[in-house]
From TrEMBL:
Family listed: Belongs to the histone deacetylase family.
Pfam family name, one: Hist_deacetyl
Residue intervals of the Histone deacetylase domain: 5-268
Keywords: Hydrolase
InterPro entries given in the database record: HDAC_classIV, HDACs, His_deacetylse_dom, His_deacetylse_dom_sf, Ureohydrolase_dom_sf
Record-annotated membrane-spanning stretches: none
Source species: Hymenobacter oligotrophus
Gene Ontology biological process: epigenetic regulation of gene expression
Gene3D superfamilies: Histone deacetylase domain
One Gene Ontology molecular-function label: histone deacetylase activity
Protein name (database record): Histone deacetylase
CDD domains, per database record: HDAC_classIV (cd09993)
Length: 279
C-alpha cells in the first residue's frame, strides 16, 4: 500500500524521525515462525500449494514476493520487540496481521506478526506476561484463537461489532462497538478499561495495534472517530505504557480512508506521540 512509502517520507520531512532511526527489517528465520504457525500450513504457503479456497480467504493471489513480504513484516515486529526492551518503544510502519491463524490466513493476513513476536519474547527473551491491545476496527480473531489457551498472553480487542470477521473468536476481553461510535463514547470506554487491565494483568510487555480504520472517513470501518479522537486514543495508550514503564511495540494495522492524507496523518500522529513521550 502507498501509505507504507508515504509515512516514513512524511516523518523524515517534518523532522519527527531521522533517517538513521529507520531500520530495514530482516526476514524472520523459519524456526521462530514455526513456534506460532503450523508446519504443514507454513510449508504449503512457502511452496505456493494453498488451495484456491485458502488463497481466496487471504484476499491475495499467491506469489513468492507476497510470502517474502509477510516474513519480512514478522522480522520487523520481532526486531521492534527486542529494540523496545531497551528504548521503551518501537514502531513498525507495517504489521498488525491479526487475522492469521496458526493453520491458515484470512483477511489480507498470512502470518500473525504480533503473535509470532509475543511467542518470541516468551520463549527467548525471558518475558513472562504479554498484553496485546488491539484497537483496529476489526476483531483480532487470529490472535484471539492463537492465545486462547496461553495464560501468559492476554488479548484485548476493541472493534466494530458488525464488522469483519462475521464470526468472531473469543479474546480474553472483547469490546464490540456499534456503528457510528463517536470520539467521546470510544474514549470513555477505553479510559474505563485499559488502566484496569494493566493493574489486573500486570504485563511485562505490550503490543499495540493502532489501526486508523476507526476513523469516520474510513471506507470499511463504520465507526465515527475523528482524527483528533484517534490521536487521543493513541496518546492514552502510549501514556499509560510510559507511566507503567512497559515496553511497547506499535504496529499500524488498517486504514482505508478515501484520501491517503487522512491515513498518513493519523498514522504520523502515533509516531509523533511516541517521540514526545520517550525521546
Amino acid at each position: 500500500m502507498l501509505k507504507y512509502e508515504l509515512l516514513p517520507e512524511q516523518l523524515i520531512r517534518e523532522g519527527t524521525i531521522a533517517e538513521e532511526s529507520i531500520f530495514a527489517p530482516i526476514p524472520l528465520p523459519d524456526k521462530y515462525i514455526l513456534e506460532t504457525h503450523c508446519a504443514a500450513y507454513y510449508q504449503r504457503l512457502v511452496q505456493g500449494q494453498l488451495t484456491r479456497q485458502e488463497e481466496r480467504a487471504t484476499g491475495f493471489p499467491w506469489s513468492e514476493q507476497l510470502v517474502q513480504r509477510e516474513v519480512t513484516i514478522l522480522g520487523g515486529t520481532v526486531q521492534c520487540a527486542k529494540l523496545a526492551r531497551h528504548t521503551g518503544v518501537a514502531l513498525n510502519v507495517a504489521g498488525g496481521t491479526h487475522h492469521a491463524f496458526a493453520d491458515r490466513g484470512e483477511g489480507f493476513c498470512l502470518l500473525n506478526d504480533q503473535a509470532v513476536a509475543a511467542n518470541y519474547l516468551l520463549q527467548h527473551e525471558g518475558i513472562g506476561k504479554v498484553l496485546i491491545v488491539d484497537l483496529d476496527v476489526h476483531q483480532g480473531n487470529g490472535t484471539a484463537a492463537l492465545f486462547r489457551y496461553e495464560p501468559r498472553v492476554f488479548t484485548f480487542s476493541m472493534h466494530g461489532a458488525r464488522n469483519y470477521p462475521a464470526r468472531k473468536e473469543h479474546s480474553d476481553l472483547d469490546l464490540a462497538l456499534p456503528d457510528g461510535t463517536d470520539d467521546a463514547t470510544y474514549l470513555k470506554l477505553l479510559h474505563e478499561t485499559l488502566p484496569r487491565l494493566l493493574d489486573e494483568v500486570q504485563p511485562e510487555f505490550v503490543f499495540y495495534l493502532a489501526g486508523v480504520d476507526v476513523l469516520g472517513t474510513d471506507k470499511l470501518g463504520h465507526l465515527g472517530l475523528t482524527r483528533e479522537g484517534c490521536r487521543q486514543r493513541d496518546r492514552f495508550v502510549l501514556e499509560l505504557c510510559h507511566r507503567y514503564q512497559l515496553p511497547v511495540v506499535v504496529c499500524m494495522g488498517g486504514g482505508y480512508s478515501e484520501r491517503i492524507s487522512d491515513i498518513v496523518e493519523a498514522h504520523a500522529n502515533t509516531f509523533r506521540l511516541a517521540r514526545e513521550l520517550w525521546f
